[in-house]
Amino acid sequence: MGTNAIWNHDLYDGPAGKRDLITDVPGVRVGHVTLRSPDGAAPTIRTGVTAIVPPGDCFASKPPAAAYVSNGFGKSMGLVQVEELGSLETPILMTNTLSCGACFDALVDHALTGHPAIGVDTGTVNPVVMECNDGPINSIRARAVTPAHGLEAIAAAGEDFDEGDVGAGTGMTCFGLKGGIGSASRVVRVDGRDHVLGVLVLTNFGSRECLRLNGEPVGLRLAEAEHAAPASASDGTDAVGAAGAGEDKGSIVAVIATDLPADSRQLRRMAKRVTVGIARCGGYIGNGSGEIVVAFSTANRIDHWAGDDQTTPSDHPTPAGGPLIETVTRLNENAMDRCFRAVAAASEEAIVSSLLHARGVRGRDGKVTPSLRDALREAGLELPESLAEA
Prior knowledge:
- This protein has helices at residues 79-85, 100-114, 147-155, 218-227, 264-272, 274-280, 336-357, 372-379; strands at residues 29-36, 46-53, 61-62, 65-72, 92-96, 128-132, 173-174, 177-178, 181-190, 193-204, 251-258, 290-297, 302-303, 361-362, 368-369.
- Helix 2 packs across helix 3 (147-155).
- It has one domain: 4-Layer Sandwich (L-amino peptidase D-ALA esterase/amidase).
- The strands form five sheets. It has a five-stranded mixed sheet, with helices on both faces. The protein has a four-stranded mixed sheet with strand order 1-2-5-6. The chain has a two-stranded antiparallel ribbon with strand order 3-13.
- It is of the alpha+beta class.
- One of its GO terms (molecular function) is aminopeptidase activity.
């Protein structure tokens, strides 16, 4: 998946992983639940849930993690504790803005089912939910997502998954075109050993005229063609054309996964570099846009039960804890530039991949948000040559 070809070698000269997806990181899985009502149905449902599931038990053996907010126009949940403690305790769910609560409940249910001691003999749990507003396409007030959908997305998670208008990406708009889920990966070689760094994005940002594909001003070309064309679509229904231009009022949220032994501080540094990929695609991080990133490592897991000698009587026996002083393998800062370049390259490709895989959709107001491919075809334009095989 991804774009099937690496074209941004100027950023990073290493290869993609086997699938060119975030799931190239060993053990990481992704699942979707897509909710899509028939055209003409009321309310118009175009939404869903996407789950990013680290390997193993996130509560008992926590992945090191970090969060980075470039522009905080967003309603993500759980980031405060991720920043304070530097770890994840649950899978990550992505959905629409008004369904964060349902996904929070799903993650609580998932954790409580696996850990009877939560809230009794140990602390509570910190669900992480990320969101974008799909209201322009989806009838977001219907709040169609339920906790059961969140659990279903986790259960559906696997190594292979679809991109584009699926899961949380079903109703998202990117650069005035159909956006959604995109992913890419890069192999990072350190000390003679290959590691993987993967990115998954939920794209719902950008102004049409700003779109750039591998440095080419595709958005401007589309805008010029649209201004020269008739204003209405051939089926009598207004299409989203030049209306996709203007202010950037959407958002993009992203997850980075890696098997590199990076600590939370280093993961936060990596997370900042997603903005390089955003900018290279033409995003300028607008006032009304939320750019939020969560990054985690599958190495150096943090033992929840460390130091627990199990001497306290309990109705819910807990696993024996490990030592309070742990020995870990640490990534040296001299390797960070290569990681930064890999994040930037994978982020740019993931954004483009979300556009290439998404299909056009008719939204709640009857208007069509076209796919990138449809918009180019309608304008008599083609993808840049470097992306022709994508």
